[in-house]
Recover the amino acids of this structure.
């Protein structure tokens, strides 16, 4: 067999894994790899303008397509710049394989030029990481990395590659299969537990199905829809779970949690059986733990045993993958012709419809100033609810989640766990590369967009036409909202004076810029922008500066303690809430 | 439910560079208590055996066990506090041993089943094995001012009976 270089082995491995697109930025330690990439044309490499963007773009690609995202960065500052993205992927369980260059093996530990302990720095925010010390292990390590990243609870895996490993030569042999004695995720749920869960689920008088990102990660949406419709139960999704169940369906009662709908949070608070599926009882969802679902027995389906009973003790845990476990439940219900308590369910729905009638997402429309919610509603109409929507972090993110009705999984792409401002634009680019024929919109804010603005240049180079919907309120709005409510309107460092002229900025990068100031112009501008199929358009919507996100459960509150727009005067929260953030 | 019980957890893990840091990192990142930690290779050179002592209520210990199992390098683990097990720790103590102290120190070492490994005219170096609390008791039994240096290995353990933690 021929001897090939480590760099060539890496490229061959990527081909074996079916990688079509990767994101990266070169430097001394990875020059050999870049040379090997130059010599091939199977894999498209996207040259970003900042390593953090490489990771977010790979996340966008992975979140939209379900494939594993691939990143290549150089040693030292290359990998430290990538850390925020890696942590973001870790928090949201996104499968990535990140290659970082490293100084030659002989120099490791010498404070060599551009040396950092990449494995040490990333250890707390990766699913696993490797330092390759022998070229003979390179191919197998890459195989392991893809396997670990994409199976079980997915997550980012980093491989640190000393430069001499990429230059040295070895035979290429890519293992077809890999088995790790220390890693063996449980996919199939325990039949006895499934049986017990079904009995509890069918005994419910006031059931709620609460699902999260796990349904999307596991492609479990078809089974979720089937089970939910078979039971006729109300369903709510977390921010990460939106799209797993069609938002336009009657059984969907909206997002739950801090900025969830009144009906979703009230149903949670009053339910007697909670069916949690691929969701991790995050503090944005539970509110104050002692007040969470006080009357409920809880079933929890999750592939990661450590997600179960971490924050909330559950009654029937089922470790397994969503599609397999839900299929098991559906089979039991169908085979035994089991039926829910129709009368109780009817009563429960009437109660929920009363809560729904509160119209907790209503807002006061204006003829003078653009309401941010209105922009999202028009975005939904103009794209006929079909666009892939990415988001940055802040108020605009919540409005996008609340007012765009997502009907399919992987349509909504946002940073939930880490809440990384700057995520939206590179993620949109990654999503567009995964689905060049679909409309991609990036909902962002005047603060967030400036964190990864340089990627407008990458987007020009690689023709990734997305529509940037900037809800420009002149503030770090989400923080300003908290200061308004909890710090007696002391707006410390949240007013973004000296915002750039975004239209000129977009034009400087070779894109189209539009500034929209009147409510009457919103729809027309969106239509015009989406008609420009092959252009990136920056829509700068000048929106109401004082608008707040409602409903809101102040930290420390229970799910039944929501503040609704225009109805509640916010005074202050208890001290405990201030600590909780 | 809220009492902080002591747990002795024994782990078989891949003998890889960084495996130990992953465990140590986990405890500091998640704010778990760690009282002692010992690690050494086993008869199978691809595996290390790591034993740690931690405190926590039932819920915390459950999370610790789950989080440890989640580490890719962890092959198997057992909470020895949940079964009948032997716990042993090694201690080396250098003590003052002059005058009438000398005979008393030797007597105490004998009572606790220790051995005097090194002798000078003014000191003894004593080796003692046993459970952590036995070692504590010895230190309490001798005069505080007599102690010059204490080295403890941290606890290790093994389950009683036929059950073995192996791959
Ligand atoms: C400004 C801001 C405001 C926010 N407000 C809210 C809010 O109001 N409401 C809200 O819900 N969130 C909100 N969030 C998001 C929140 O921080 C969390 O990210 C989110 O609630 C977590 O969603 P999840 O429970 O679906 O978990 P995810 O992070 O999506 O985790 C997925 C779970 O599924 C499991 N899983 C993975 N694969 C599988 C499989 N194959 N089978 C079974 N299980 C699997 C994983 O182990 C994990 O437990 C907000 C975030 C920001 C930045
Ligand atoms: C990198 C980073 N820094 C700080 C924060 C804290 N933070 C959360 S939302 C927000 C304001 C976002 O402002 P903008 O993008 O204008 O969105 P808006 O809330 O105004 O819609 C800030 C500073 C964060 N989430 N991420
Ligand atoms: Mg803003």
């Amino acid at each position: 067999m021929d001897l090939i270089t480590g760099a060539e082995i890496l490229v061959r491995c990527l081909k074996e894994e079916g990688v079509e697109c990767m994101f990266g930025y070169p430097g001394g330690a990875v020059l050999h790899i870049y040379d090997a990439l130059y010599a091939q044309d199977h894999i498209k490499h996207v040259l970003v303008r900042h390593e953090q963007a490489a990771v977010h773009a790979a996340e966008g690609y992975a979140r939209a397509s379900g494939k594993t995202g691939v990143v290549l960065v150089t040693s030292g500052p290359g990998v430290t710049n990538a850390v925020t993205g890696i942590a973001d992927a870790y928090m949201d369980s996104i499968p990535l394989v990140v290659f970082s260059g490293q100084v030659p093996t002989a120099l490791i530990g010498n404070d060599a030029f551009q040396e950092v302990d990449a494995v040490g720095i990333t250890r707390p925010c990766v699913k696993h990481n490797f330092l390759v010390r022998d070229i003979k292990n390179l191919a197998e390590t890459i195989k392991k990395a893809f396997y670990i990243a994409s199976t079980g609870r997915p997550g980012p895996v980093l491989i640190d590659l000393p430069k001499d490993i990429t230059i040295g030569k070895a035979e290429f042999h890519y293992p077809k299969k890999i088995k790790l004695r220390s890693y063996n995720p449980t996919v199939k749920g325990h039949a006895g537990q499934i049986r017990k869960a079904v009995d509890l689920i069918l005994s419910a008088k006031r059931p709620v199905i609460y699902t999260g990102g796990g349904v999307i990660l596991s492609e479990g949406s078809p089974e979720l829809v089937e089970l939910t419709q078979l039971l006729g139960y109300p369903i709510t999704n977390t921010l990460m779970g939106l799209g797993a169940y069609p938002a336009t369906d009657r059984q969907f009662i909206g997002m739950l949690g801090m900025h969830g709908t009144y009906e979703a949070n009230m149903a949670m608070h009053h339910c007697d059986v909670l069916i949690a599926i691929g969701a991790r009882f995050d503090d944005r969802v539970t509110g104050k733990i002692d007040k969470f679902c006080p009357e409920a027995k809880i079933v929890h389906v999750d592939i990661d045993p450590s997600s179960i009973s971490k924050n909330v003790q559950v009654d029937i845990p089922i470790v397994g993958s969503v599609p397999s476990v839900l299929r098991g439940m559906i089979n039991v219900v169908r085979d035994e012709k089991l039926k829910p308590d129709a009368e109780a369910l009817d009563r429960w729905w009437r109660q929920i419809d009363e809560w729904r009638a509160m119209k907790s997402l209503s807002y006061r429309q204006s003829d003078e100033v653009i309401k941010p919610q209105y922009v999202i509603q028009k975005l939904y109409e103009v794209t006929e609810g079909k666009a892939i929507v990415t988001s940055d972090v802040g108020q605009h993110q919540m409005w996008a989640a609340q007012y765009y009705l997502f009907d399919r999984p992987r349509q909504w792409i946002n940073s939930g766990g880490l809440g990384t401002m700057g995520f939206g634009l590179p993620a949109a680019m990654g999503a567009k590369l995964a689905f060049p024929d679909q409309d991609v919109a990036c909902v962002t804010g005047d603060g967030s967009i400036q964190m990864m603005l340089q990627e407008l240049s990458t987007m020009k180079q690689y023709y990734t036409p997305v529509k940037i919907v900037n809800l420009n309120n002149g503030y770090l709005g989400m923080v300003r909202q908290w200061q308004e409510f909890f710090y007696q309107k002391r707006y410390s460092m949240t007013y973004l004076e000296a915002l750039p002229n975004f239209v000129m900025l977009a034009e400087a990068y070779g894109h189209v810029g539009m500034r929209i100031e009147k409510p009457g112009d919103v729809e027309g501008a969106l239509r015009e922008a989406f008609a420009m199929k092959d252009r990136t358009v920056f829509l700068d919507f000048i929106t109401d500066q004082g608008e707040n996100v409602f409903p809101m459960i102040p930290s420390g509150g229970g799910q039944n303690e929501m503040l609704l727009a225009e109805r509640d005067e916010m005074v202050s929260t208890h001290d405990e809430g201030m600590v909780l953030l | 439910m809220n009492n902080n019980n002591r747990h002795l957890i024994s782990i078989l893990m891949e003998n890889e560079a960084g495996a130990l840091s992953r465990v140590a990192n986990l405890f500091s990142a998640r704010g778990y208590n760690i009282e002692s930690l010992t690690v050494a290779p086993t008869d199978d050179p691809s595996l290390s055996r790591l034993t740690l002592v931690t405190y926590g209520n039932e819920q915390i210990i459950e999370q610790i066990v789950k989080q440890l199992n989640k580490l890719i390098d962890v092959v198997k683990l057992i909470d020895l506090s949940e079964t009948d097990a032997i716990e042993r720790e090694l201690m080396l103590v250098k003590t003052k041993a002059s005058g009438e102290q000398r005979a008393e120190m030797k007597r105490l070492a004998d009572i606790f089943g220790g051995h005097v490994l090194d002798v000078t005219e003014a000191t003894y170096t004593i080796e003692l094995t046993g459970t952590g609390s036995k070692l504590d008791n010895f230190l309490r039994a001798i005069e505080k001012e007599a102690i010059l240096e204490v080295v403890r290995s941290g606890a290790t353990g093994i389950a009683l009976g036929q059950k073995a933690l192996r791959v």
